[in-house]
Every structure is written in structure tokens, then in C-alpha cells.
Design brief:
Blueprint: H1 3-38, E1 43-53, E2 59-69, E3 73-80, E4 82-89, E5 92-97, E6 100-105, H2 110-124, H3 127-133, E7 136-143, E8 146-153, E9 161-169, E10 175-182, E11 187-197
Antiparallel strand pairs: 1-2, 1-11, 2-3, 3-4, 4-5, 5-6, 7-8, 8-9, 9-10, 10-11
Helix pairs in contact: 2-3
Length: about 210
């Protein structure tokens, strides 16, 4: 047996395994930091733009103001389209779109519970929980002062997302961008600006 022929594959295999482990360790450290720092964010507010692309590739521009508190409260009050709202307040959720008002008791609506948990976890920086809930593999990239987390579901499901991309500032681990693609092909890209952290939030933002 030619020993020299065996050495190179073994070395390459060992190096490849070490490199993957190093990437995984770096990614996990970033996610741990995002979650740890996220626990210090009692409130987050900011201006929001949303680009919705339907499965038929029609594009819909939306805009409004986003509100979050660490008391399981999340809201988007839209100025475009005016009157649309998404509100999570504890165990209840409200959706208003095109004049249609829908209220959900989250423990009784598993699909809406999953969506609500995703939105709250994304704001709170609980990225590992999101990956577990969506049965997704993830990668983490550091560039331009941000952490970018990309998730891909391991298999197709009736509900949830086929892919998720979350962008957090490295400076304070606040999410500035989120992109989701559901299994039907609908894409939603959210971007936040004028972000304020740990400031006052009017409770009326979360009232139904």
C-alpha cells in the first residue's frame, strides 16, 4: 500500500473537518452574542419598509412603524396601506388588512402561534430557537458591521418558511433586516431605519 497516497486525503479530510468546526464555532458565538445582548433590549421602535413579492411575482410596497417590547408585544402600524395592522400582545394577535379584521387566541391557533413566536424571537435575537422551530440549517456571516443569518428548511412543510434571512447590527445586536420565503413562494423583505432602543413605547400601539 502506498502510504503517501493515503496521507494527502487524510490531511485534507482533517483540514476540511476542522474548517467546518471553526465556522460552526464562530457562528454559534455570534448567535450567543445576539441572544445575550438582545435580552437587554426592553423596547425597539423604528420605521419599516416591506416589499412583498407574491408567488406570481407581483410586487407590493408597504411601510409603517414597528414596535416591540420584551413583554411579548409586537406591532406594525402601516401607513401604506393605511389602516393595516399586525399586533401581538401576549397570547393574542390581531391582523387588519384591506379592512378585514382577524383576531386570534394564539394557544388555540398553532399556525398563528408559530408566526407570532417567530416575530417575537427575531426581535429578541433568539435565532437558535427560530432555526429549531423551522427545522432549518443555518449559516452566519460577518460583514460590514453586521451579522447575517441565513436559514434553509431541511424539508418542505405545510406551514412555515422555506428560507429566512436575518441581519443584526454587530454594535448592539438589533435586527435591521428580515427576509422570509414561505413554501408557496411568497417573499417578504423588511427593512428598519431610525431605530430607537430602550425608549418609551405608547401602550396604544398594542391595543386591539
Amino acid at each position: 500500500m502506498n502510504i503517501k497516497k493515503l496521507i494527502l486525503p487524510i490531511v485534507l479530510f482533517s483540514l476540511f473537518g476542522y474548517t467546518n468546526a471553526a465556522f460552526a464555532q464562530t457562528g454559534d458565538k455570534a448567535l450567543d452574542k445576539i441572544e445575550t445582548v438582545g435580552k437587554k433590549h426592553t423596547t425597539i421602535t423604528g420605521s419599516l419598509t416591506q416589499l412583498r413579492t407574491t408567488a406570481a411575482k407581483a410586487k407590493i410596497d408597504m411601510a409603517g412603524t414597528l414596535y416591540y417590547t420584551d413583554k411579548n408585544q409586537f406591532a406594525i402600524n402601516y401607513s401604506t396601506p393605511a389602516g393595516n395592522r399586525t399586533v401581538i400582545n401576549g397570547q393574542n394577535m390581531l391582523l387588519i388588512a384591506k379592512g378585514k379584521n382577524q383576531k386570534f387566541n394564539l394557544p388555540k391557533s398553532p399556525s398563528m402561534q408559530k408566526l407570532a413566536s417567530f416575530l417575537i424571537d427575531a426581535m429578541a435575537g433568539r435565532v437558535k430557537e427560530i432555526a429549531t422551530s423551522n427545522n432549518a440549517d443555518y449559516t452566519v456571516k460577518e460583514s460590514g458591521g453586521t451579522y447575517t443569518v441565513e436559514m434553509t428548511a431541511r424539508k418542505k412543510a405545510a406551514k412555515g418558511f422555506s428560507s429566512i434571512r436575518l441581519v443584526y447590527r454587530q454594535s448592539d445586536c438589533v435586527m435591521t433586516e428580515m427576509e422570509t420565503v414561505d413554501f408557496s413562494g411568497v417573499n417578504n423583505l423588511y427593512k428598519m431605519t431610525d431605530i430607537k432602543v430602550n425608549g418609551p413605547v405608547d401602550d396604544s400601539a398594542f391595543k386591539f
